[in-house]
Design goal:
122 residues, mainly alpha, 0% strand
Protein backbone atom coordinates (compact mmCIF):
# COMPACT_ATOMS: atom_id res chain seq x y z
CA UNK A 1 0.00 0.00 0.00
CA UNK A 2 2.80 2.38 0.94
CA UNK A 3 4.50 1.84 -2.42
CA UNK A 4 1.32 2.37 -4.39
CA UNK A 5 0.53 5.53 -2.42
CA UNK A 6 4.09 6.80 -2.76
CA UNK A 7 4.29 6.16 -6.50
CA UNK A 8 0.96 7.92 -7.11
CA UNK A 9 1.63 10.85 -4.78
CA UNK A 10 -1.36 9.87 -2.64
CA UNK A 11 -0.08 11.72 0.40
CA UNK A 12 -2.98 10.96 2.74
CA UNK A 13 -2.83 7.22 2.05
CA UNK A 14 0.95 7.22 2.30
CA UNK A 15 0.75 9.05 5.62
CA UNK A 16 -1.79 6.53 6.92
CA UNK A 17 0.44 3.60 5.85
CA UNK A 18 3.51 5.15 7.46
CA UNK A 19 1.61 5.80 10.70
CA UNK A 20 0.25 2.24 10.79
CA UNK A 21 3.70 0.78 10.22
CA UNK A 22 5.25 3.06 12.85
CA UNK A 23 2.57 2.04 15.37
CA UNK A 24 3.17 -1.66 14.63
CA UNK A 25 6.85 -1.50 13.76
CA UNK A 26 7.96 -4.57 15.69
CA UNK A 27 5.31 -6.79 14.08
CA UNK A 28 5.93 -5.44 10.56
CA UNK A 29 9.73 -5.57 10.68
CA UNK A 30 9.82 -9.27 11.54
CA UNK A 31 7.65 -10.41 8.62
CA UNK A 32 9.01 -12.26 5.61
CA UNK A 33 7.38 -9.70 3.33
CA UNK A 34 9.32 -6.85 4.90
CA UNK A 35 12.57 -8.79 4.57
CA UNK A 36 11.70 -9.46 0.94
CA UNK A 37 10.97 -5.78 0.36
CA UNK A 38 14.36 -4.78 1.79
CA UNK A 39 16.15 -7.43 -0.28
CA UNK A 40 14.40 -6.74 -3.58
CA UNK A 41 13.42 -3.08 -3.65
CA UNK A 42 15.69 -0.41 -5.03
CA UNK A 43 18.03 0.97 -2.35
CA UNK A 44 16.68 4.53 -2.73
CA UNK A 45 13.12 3.34 -2.18
CA UNK A 46 14.10 1.44 0.96
CA UNK A 47 15.85 4.59 2.23
CA UNK A 48 12.78 6.77 1.54
CA UNK A 49 10.63 4.23 3.35
CA UNK A 50 13.01 4.03 6.33
CA UNK A 51 13.27 7.82 6.58
CA UNK A 52 9.50 8.24 6.58
CA UNK A 53 9.07 5.58 9.28
CA UNK A 54 11.78 7.18 11.43
CA UNK A 55 10.16 10.62 11.06
CA UNK A 56 6.78 9.19 12.04
CA UNK A 57 8.26 7.37 15.04
CA UNK A 58 9.93 10.60 16.15
CA UNK A 59 6.71 12.57 15.62
CA UNK A 60 4.39 10.04 17.29
CA UNK A 61 6.66 8.64 20.00
CA UNK A 62 4.17 9.27 22.83
CA UNK A 63 1.30 7.62 20.97
CA UNK A 64 3.59 4.71 20.05
CA UNK A 65 4.74 4.33 23.68
CA UNK A 66 1.12 4.26 24.86
CA UNK A 67 0.22 1.73 22.16
CA UNK A 68 3.17 -0.50 23.11
CA UNK A 69 2.24 -0.28 26.80
CA UNK A 70 -1.36 -1.23 25.94
CA UNK A 71 -0.14 -4.22 23.91
CA UNK A 72 2.06 -5.41 26.79
CA UNK A 73 -0.83 -5.04 29.24
CA UNK A 74 -3.16 -6.98 26.95
CA UNK A 75 -0.56 -9.73 26.57
CA UNK A 76 -0.11 -9.93 30.35
CA UNK A 77 -3.86 -10.09 30.97
CA UNK A 78 -4.21 -12.73 28.27
CA UNK A 79 -1.34 -14.84 29.67
CA UNK A 80 -2.74 -14.59 33.21
CA UNK A 81 -6.19 -15.63 31.98
CA UNK A 82 -4.73 -18.64 30.16
CA UNK A 83 -2.74 -19.68 33.25
CA UNK A 84 -5.75 -19.24 35.50
CA UNK A 85 -8.42 -20.88 33.34
CA UNK A 86 -6.58 -22.92 30.73
CA UNK A 87 -8.75 -21.30 28.03
CA UNK A 88 -7.44 -19.03 25.31
CA UNK A 89 -9.59 -15.87 25.13
CA UNK A 90 -10.58 -14.31 21.82
CA UNK A 91 -8.32 -11.50 20.68
CA UNK A 92 -9.45 -7.92 21.20
CA UNK A 93 -10.81 -6.26 18.07
CA UNK A 94 -8.13 -3.59 18.55
CA UNK A 95 -5.31 -6.14 18.52
CA UNK A 96 -3.42 -6.98 15.38
CA UNK A 97 -3.94 -10.54 14.32
CA UNK A 98 -0.53 -11.70 13.11
CA UNK A 99 -2.11 -13.98 10.51
CA UNK A 100 -4.14 -11.09 9.07
CA UNK A 101 -1.07 -8.85 9.09
CA UNK A 102 0.98 -11.56 7.35
CA UNK A 103 -1.77 -12.10 4.78
CA UNK A 104 -2.07 -8.35 4.07
CA UNK A 105 1.67 -7.98 3.72
CA UNK A 106 1.73 -10.95 1.33
CA UNK A 107 -0.78 -9.21 -0.92
CA UNK A 108 1.22 -5.98 -0.73
CA UNK A 109 4.44 -7.81 -1.56
CA UNK A 110 2.81 -9.07 -4.75
CA UNK A 111 2.34 -5.42 -5.73
CA UNK A 112 5.83 -4.35 -4.66
CA UNK A 113 7.83 -5.91 -7.48
CA UNK A 114 5.87 -4.38 -10.38
CA UNK A 115 5.33 -1.07 -8.56
CA UNK A 116 8.99 -0.63 -7.66
CA UNK A 117 9.84 -1.27 -11.30
CA UNK A 118 7.24 1.27 -12.46
CA UNK A 119 8.30 3.75 -9.80
CA UNK A 120 11.88 3.83 -11.04
CA UNK A 121 10.97 3.79 -14.73
CA UNK A 122 8.91 7.00 -14.54
Amino acid sequence: MFLVAHSHNAEQLESYCVHFIAMNEAEVLKTRQFERFVEQAHEQLVQVFSDKIKQEVDRSYIQIAINNYRKREEATVRANHIRRTGHVPAKSSNSIDEYELEESLQLISEIIDPMSYIYFQV
